[in-house]
## 1
Amino acid sequence: MSLPSPAADRTALVTGASSGIGAEIARELARRGHGVVLVARRVEQLQDLAGELSATGVRAEVLPTDLLDRNARAGLPDRVTALGLTVDILVNNAGLSTLGPVHRADAEAEQRMVELDVMAVVDLCTRFLPGMVERGRGGVLNVASTAAFQPLPGQAGYGGSKAFVLSYTRALGGELKGTGVTATTLCPGPVDTGFGEAAGFTAEEATDALPAFMWETPAAVARCAVDALAAGRPVAIPGQANRFSAIAAHLTPKRFLVPLLASRHPGLQR
Ligand SMILES: NC(=O)c1ccc[n+]([C@@H]2O[C@H](COP(=O)([O-])OP(=O)(O)OC[C@H]3O[C@@H](n4cnc5c(N)ncnc54)[C@H](OP(=O)(O)O)[C@@H]3O)[C@@H](O)[C@H]2O)c1
């Protein structure tokens, strides 16, 4: 199944579009002719990207939103409608991670992570899917991680959140069969975006923990994501090394894998 064709009154809403993978997914969609609605908190970055994409001839709108705010999330569909647009493509990409063992974690920070990585995904899918199904066309791309394929001591809540996104999106795909709407999970391995630094990794820790051949560029990840979305594939894992390690992690008995991961994770070495 292919993605809905681009049209003047149709758009792709991309969360976390102010940097990293989200900005590249917006660029990739725009390159394929889709208009975009860019959502995140940093207005200047969103406006710069909207300017860049508008110059290529697509319609690019900015809707600054704090996705941790439930009322702000609830208001998004009306704000898109007010622009005279319908959302044919929903990309739930905004995400964050905490770092370190749960017994030393800040309870508020852990809840903020689950609110963004899990609740916002569920919320926006629930709000935008009915319109897509009614129109008989659409695509959802939810961004998880290769961390979705195994428990991740040192980032327990993050790994659990991404496992939720993978399971949820696969289930959506089953529910949506025959509706004209598809659901795809993007599961990147390491990508140099500033995400690791925001979580609390030093650049050295990140590169030491994961070998160079596993790292993908944001642009390559976005291409892989939009190809999979366009093909209606349920799961996309950018890079052969990441596909291999995700399968291996999924299949390895967890009584062996979890202690090994715990012994190597930088967030547990401090
Ligand atoms: N980089 C990696 O190695 C990697 C690997 C696997 C999966 N991922 C996943 O890829 C996705 C994108 O991450 P990235 O690597 O591109 O990192 P990033 O550059 O840090 O991007 C995170 C995005 O989320 C947005 N965001 C954060 N809090 C928000 C909030 N409260 N409301 C609205 N937007 C918010 C940020 O925008 P504002 O700050 O402007 O709000 C930013 O645009 C995440 O879901 C992440 O889990 C990343």
## 2
Amino acid sequence: MAPAARRRYQEGWLRELVALGWAKAPGVRRRMEAARLGPNDLSSLESLARLPVIKKSQMPDLQKADPPFGGFCTVPMKQIRKIFVSPGPIFEPLGPELGAWHAETGLYAGGFRPGDVVINTFLYHLVPAAHEIDEALNLIGCTVVPTGVGNTETQVVVARAVQATGYVGTPSFLMTILKKAEEMGLGRLPFEVAQVGAEALPESLRRQFEEEYGIFTRQGFGTADIGLVAYECVEKSGMHLVEDAIVQVCDPQTGEPLPDGQIGEIVATVNHRTYPMIRFGTGDLTVIDHSKCPCGRTSARMLGWRGRADEVTKVRGMFIHPRQVDEVVARVAGVSRYQVVVSRQDHQDVLTFRVELAEGVEAAGIATKLEAAIREVMKLRGRVEVVPRGSIPEAAKKVADERKWD
Ligand SMILES: [Zn+2]
């Protein structure tokens, strides 16, 4: 989709979704009325920011006040196919429409094709992921074996018996199954493609799946509330946003959209007719990249998951996260222990990187390299302080906020 066509498409469904929520979902209407907005006030991508973000952490209370869905469901109970229960508890309806999670786009980009036979090892109790992914696989034309969690030997036996070409589940469990097959003397399983999630996928593990086992391995990003909003393509350089989600990266405190390239909270509006989540704050952090992807897709990409919004510290107007601190240090060899201290001097925030150096490492040059890495990763100027080994306590917070406000 060209950018103009994408905007037309997204603003088209946004207007319908808002109108539907206003008419059928009292919870949506209450939020809009509280912000003094009518059904015609949220018709463009920019105008969306006028509606305050609804935080995931608010959902349990909102639902308790108007059970079971907090007034966010647009259809009567008799049209609900399933009710999922996520920790909180938060209840999510699965309504009449197929593919409400938009997972098929990501699965297809991840290599799943009609005729694939797929074992789905995600959890089937209470939570939506396994069920929604099954539906998406069916929409593509795949056959699903709902094997669920655990029972490693059964997984191996089943995967061989049905000649499973696809795997869905956590990356660590995929490795467990592959090893189990070898241990049972059955050799290689017939998997060709895997969609993994619910935990981090280290590049070393992905390389092992792809090079040793020949399994094309991709991942996506989603939550129980909003479905799958981003997925990796063949390039695996970030995750493309789906056209049925409007993802804004926002200031976790004010909900204001941030300029491109800044780290912020993922706030999603999803084209889900049964359960319209409009400006839903996931509490997860990311950075969005609008540069062109060599795969040919024109959609923007989420550059990975950057932690939780409740762990961020705001420094001179920019958010910093413990994972960025790790990223800075990873770019410079020779640092053994480190901590960022945020302080105030003459009413200015000061960012200090305290580092201990590994044995035999010369301090000269390291500070300059670290300062450059801080500028690149955090978009901030920071100063570097080399401290004697043992000065940073083992249990020290990675980002220590020592600012005093009076
Ligand atoms: Zn791409």
## 3
Amino acid sequence: MPTLAELLSRETRDGELYDVLPDGRLRCYACGHECPLPDGAIGVCKVRVNQSGRLRVPWGYVGGVQCDPIEKKPFFHAHPGALAYSFGMLGCDLHCGYCQNWVTSQALRDPEAVAPPLDASPERLVRDAIRQGARVIVSTYNEPLITSEWAVAVFKEAKAAGLTTGFVSNGNGTPQVLEYLRPWVDLYKVDLKSFDDRHYRELGGRIGPILDTIRRLHEMRFWVEIVTLLIPGFNDSRDELQRLTAFVASVSPDIPWHVTAFHKDYRMTGPENTTAEMLLQAAAIGRAAGLRFVYAGNLPGRVGNLEDTRCAECGDLLVARYGYYVRDYRITADGRCPGCKASVPGVWGRKFDGQIASRPFLPGSRARLSVLQP
Ligand code: SF4
């Protein structure tokens, strides 16, 4: 039986995000590591490889697919209630000990992370998304930047079919990859994990490229939302949260910030689970920093009105939620508050045609994709 790495080494094609350096190495620009790869070398992500002077990148498979409410991503200012079809490949450029998608993200590093890949084409994924009623399609689960060529191929099909597209990413980007993605990606969620470079180095990255990416995403007019998983003892000090939220507000006070509850997962089982009280305190810090849309996630019904969207001008209720489920929707056809008529930042449909559900959405049938054969 071939190993997972051997199986995936066949599922590649020539990449587009690299230069040839004067000494013959290839410089990959898909993520902020910008690996210089001599012949035969594989990147930190374990999925992009210099094969005889050509950068081979993942192609033709997914690690998993699922259709959920878009609130689960979380995006709260983009087609509320819509179904988002999520797909991901395998591998990641970071190695966070608390990863909640570790089965796919760490599949090539951790022998316990077994996620059998499924054979896929852009056409079949988009057909499957439409069959399941999705209006949005999202590259997620692994780090989508490291598989950008595949995401763009899927998104070209998706846009032709009228879908909105999105990335759920750690934000460790480069100017080159953002230029490459801009025509094809509408929504971009960045998981801003900390505001301390030492913490990012523990996770295998650096904070600099992530902050640069957030600034660029906003300047380039991607629709950006930020999420921070609040981990007691790791990133929850008042000082760190003040600096983090002040940074986001300096890019734009209209960027929604989601602060979400940690639960013990993967290798990070030391910290306690985040409480509702901790989320409320963090949210208050975000509001004090000037952020106009602050949400508390993962503890439905326990965080007051921090699941709802309210008008930043007059305070009127615009979208009422319980967890991922939209209970009421009042934004006008032209994206305004029905009370004071202020424009609400986000990506809104002409009318609300998503779900208002009191119970979880369950897809009618599973994706029609088959496991890659050895
Ligand atoms: S995606 Fe990032 S980690 Fe992978 S080869 Fe490219 S620069 Fe290196």
